[in-house]
Amino acid sequence: MSTPTNSPLSIAISSAAHLLNGTHNDYDPLLDLIGDAHFVLLGEATHGTHEFYQERARITQRLVAEKNFSAVAVEADWPDAYNVNRYVRGTSTDSSSELALSGFQRFPTWMWRNRDVVQFIDWLRGYNDSLEPDALKTGFYGLDLYSLFTSIDEVLGYLDNVDPEGARRARARYACFDHFYEDSQRYGYAASLGLSQACEEQVIAQLRDLRKQAKEYKDLDSQLAKDEFFYAEQNARLVKNAEQYYRSMFQDRISSWNLRDRHMAETLSALAQHLSQPDRPAKIVVWEHNSHIGDARATEIGRQGEWNVGQLAREQYGGDAVLIGFTTYQGTVTAASEWDAPAERKRVRPALAGSYEEAFHQTGMSRFMLPLRGKNPAAQALASSERLERAIGVIYLPQTERQSHYFRAQLPQQFDAVLHFDETQAVEPLELTSGWHEGEAPATFPVGL
Questions:
Q1: Number of compact structural domains in the chain
Q2: pTM of the model
Q3: What are 360-395's pLDDT values in tens digits?
Q4: Cα separation, 380 vs 420, whole angstroms
Q5: Same structural domain for residues 293 and 431?
Q6: Vertex 275 angle, CA 269 and 281, to 5°
Q7: pLDDT tens digit string along 93-106?
């Protein structure tokens, strides 16, 4: 814990903050802020911090148990997360949470194959098992679109079971991708430069064909049949959107970002519609990075033309969507040094001067929730000007900290509340590499002071 300063900003933050002491009642003020909202978006400032996973799980457990939330939707591929969904709802043959998470083999595996996620999945399975047989069980779903070829396989597998002739038509359409050897980026590069025919028409035709046959595929007396059709339909939609995304990757970074977040927002909307009942609209918790769930309009990135899930959720649902950011000042994080590189336990440098994280550190409080709605003194003080905000993804490059991991934002417009954990630890992957186990040298190496 740092020594608190007596600056007007520190005093304002301290007066409005709710301390987090690790007790069951920690999040009473947060649940009061959430109220009857149907969408709660929980962020993270890194993709590899133990406290972020742990506290999102604690909040989600209360939302499920006390406010009847029926789904957890995460920044993960649809097919891999749906395997977990089957497990937590008791319809899979997997014997453990670790096995249910085995589909997450694409970099970065530690995002979902880690100890904190296993513990949460264990809890969710146990909670669902404790319900009455006909009670609505809480599911686990992925919002992302990287699984182009896996989703193709899932569409074909579904059609093989319900419509062999439809499967034949789908194989003919998806054969457009065959010579790319399940390499999505190779396809995107070739199609974007005109080196190969784009598969856009084929994937759109396949989605239309699947939807046209929907009534024949769904048994109206079977919820499982409806769920499995919905799973296949979302895979076909993912293939359509992923095809466009991978073509855009080699053209414009903002366009590809917007396509991805638009897909995630559309998946969230489709999930809410699928899970809603006439007398019970779906309530969904979202787990994604701050950069996806904070309103992009309040950031310099938004001014450059990017939108994100948080902005789209506010535009569609208004106050029915609550956006919660997470921050840290220093500690360790699980991240890589380059794409597809092994996971490392890296030291997170103290936040830069002029950042929100530094302002929170200067309060001297180690863990707290700060509401940002309304006219509390902290929200007013923080709204007076933009500050730096840190974002660490799957790659962390401390040597280029300012350029790689900071952007300017107005926090009170970006989030409805923020949770700050001053010193944090790296999340523990299920598969520990030597680089993660050893970690980085201390900050004082080699002097030792």
A1: 2
A2: 0.93
A3: 999 999 999 999 988 788 888 888 789 999 999 999
A4: 18
A5: yes
A6: 85
A7: 999 999 999 999 99
